[in-house]
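Final report, Chapter 2: Outcomes

The project's central promise was a pipeline that accepts a single protein chain and returns its three-dimensional structure in a standardized token representation, suitable for archiving and comparison. That pipeline is now operational. To close this chapter, we reproduce one record exactly as it appears in the project archive, with the input sequence first and the structure output second.
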Amino acid sequence: MKRFGKKTWLWAVLGVFVAAVFVLSYLIAGNAISGKEPVKIRIRKGWSLRQLADSMSEKAGLKHPGVFVFFAEKAGYSIPKPCTIILSYGDNIYGIIRELKANRNQTVNVTIQGSMDAESISKLFASRLEVDADSFLAMLKSPAALKSYGFNDTTWAALFIPNTYNLYASTETPELLKRMVKEYDDFWNSKRIQRSIIQRLTSKEVITLASIVTKESNKTDEYEKIAGVYLNRLRKGMLLQADPTVVFARGKAGRVWASDLAIQSPYNTYIHPGLPPGPICIPNLQSIEAVLNYKQHNYLYFCAKSDFSGYHDFAINLADHNRNAAAFHRAMNERGIK
């Protein structure tokens, strides 16, 4: 039996060591991501390292999740912190762990947009923050849940001023609501409050009317004129007869038919005078400013143009309005719009 000398054993040990270093270097310094496109990973509060590794493996193609967990623990990153991280092809485990330890992306931008309803804003917050969508939606629909903040299930939309907010990814519902109240108070400064008084509306009523304006048109350059029509009708004691309130009461989008005008709902402004109980959506900023600063005119009616440009024909009297409405309905029928 042939025996190995000391030099042979040394070379064997050295070879194993070199191989180990090579493998180790490959595992922590080589490309750890198989996905070709950059992927944003959101780290949730309470995640374990294993959950984080599994998420990175599923969404970005992390090649060796077990190796990541092992070296993350050795590097002192044993408890993931809520944040976001972008993983790209070519990233290595060492760099990923270093990025996570730096935790530079603790905050996220959350953009509240006009026209959002309760379901869409609940999903938005749940996708960016530590908020449960179903629980948040239930809160918005609860008559008492927002009472301490000065809102309820009909006025909640007035609380959320459209804007982009930078928030901690770990933000939960109580902190979110406190921030929104602060933004609401900042938005309703003395100048805007004075304008609302001039229009003989409370801030919540301004938001309610602005929500109707938002739903009436996507042409912001005619918002002031539309707002003026509704303010003129309110001051004359006329029914608003706003189609968007009927659509809201009906609960589904689509063409408004004569039968819809009799829907029994406090939001149906064809049968109930004044403004509806609350906003029918989160209005956009342009519509809020349009209500506060509309240019005075004598129009009492408006109807979508028959050319489907998205603009409206305005009228002072009912006869002119009926002609405009008839032209629009003929155009809808010709196009088979239901």
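Archive annotation: Residues 107-187 form one domain.
This record, like all others produced under the grant, will remain available to the consortium after the project formally closes.
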